[in-house]
Amino acid sequence: MSKRYNRRRHVVNHGISIVLFIFAMSSIAVLVAILSSIFAQGLSGISWDFLTGFPSRRPEDAGILPALVGSLMVVGGSMLFAVPIGLATAIYLQEFAKAKRFTGLIQTLIYNLAGVPSIVYGIFGATFFVIALKTMLMASGSSMTTGRVLLAGILTMGILILPVIVVTTQEAIKTVPRSLKEASYALGATQVQTTFKITARYAFPNILTGIILAISRVLGETAPLLMVGAAGFITFLPTDLFGGYTVLPVQIYNWMMRPQVAFQTTAAAGIIVLLLTQVIISGTAIIVRAVLQKRYE
């Protein structure tokens, strides 16, 4: 009876392992097929002129520089806006806030906001940031009479990633061993000193994981930025916070909607640039995280 049971258990375990392996390989195969199709179609469109050029109505002359610069500015601006606020909020809720109904309500709202569709943030940005910036620009006598500017995109994306940063930071803080905090208190450190010199330093590599996820989300978003003014065609570099702009996903979408077949190759080349940009930024953050983990071990 025991041998039969062991044999049956071995067969079941082996069968489950095979099924899981098939699912894993299927997922990898789909990913490889998608990437292979994109690179096969778009690699021929990658050139120095494409990377440093401006959009054109002719696919052979189209460039991606304004969209690349716009994406980097939106990512950088939204990080500068969301990271300090997100870290401060997470540290307060996790380390300083007392367990009350109001605190629990705030915590629940933040978790729910992290799962809200991005289009909702686009609507919020269009009805709040765009109108507020338009009113401010008109009151200042600026030649720019619309609020659909780069700053609106930055603020909208900052609000979008704020819950993600708060949630991931809180989870990172929870990984800090309680013994470290108690040892700090035993040496006479205050709660503030313990939080910033022990807890934050220990959790920082894991906090970077949340920031990496936030960067990836900003780089890939299209709908919210379309709603707050990202243009599908601009022939200048977006260097002014109160000026027009575009980003890589919006530019790629614009090319995909063009009737000329040649623009499909241009769009595929744009996707490659977007992927490489994401890999470079995320890879840099991962390397920094690995260095910090070794330092704090």
Write structural notes for this entry.
By secondary structure, the protein is mainly α. It has two domains: 2-43; 47-296, MetI-like (MetI-like fold), CATH 1.10.3720. 76% of the residues lie in helices and 0% in strands. The longest helix has 41 residues, at 2-42.
List the helices and strands and how they pair.
Blueprint: H1 2-42, H2 48-52, H3 65-96, H4 101-113, H5 118-139, H6 150-174, H7 178-186, H8 191-220, H9 223-227, H10 248-256, H11 262-296
Helix pairs in contact: 1-11, 3-6, 3-8, 3-10, 5-6, 6-8, 7-8, 8-11, 10-11
Q: Give the C-alpha Rg.
A: 24 Å
CATH class of the largest domain: Mainly Alpha
Number of E-type strands? 0
CATH superfamily of the largest domain: MetI-like
Per DSSP, the total helix count is 11
The average pLDDT is: 87
CATH topology of the largest domain, anyone? Answer: MetI-like fold
Instruction: Estimate percent helicity.
Output: over 70%
Report, as a whole number of angstroms, the end-to-end distance: 50 Å
Largest beta sheet, briefly? none
How much of the sequence lies in strands comes to under 5%
Helices and strands, in N-to-C order?
Answer: HHHHHHHHHHH
Multimer state: single chain
Unreliable runs, pLDDT <50, ≥5 residues? none
By CATH, the architecture of the largest domain is named Orthogonal Bundle
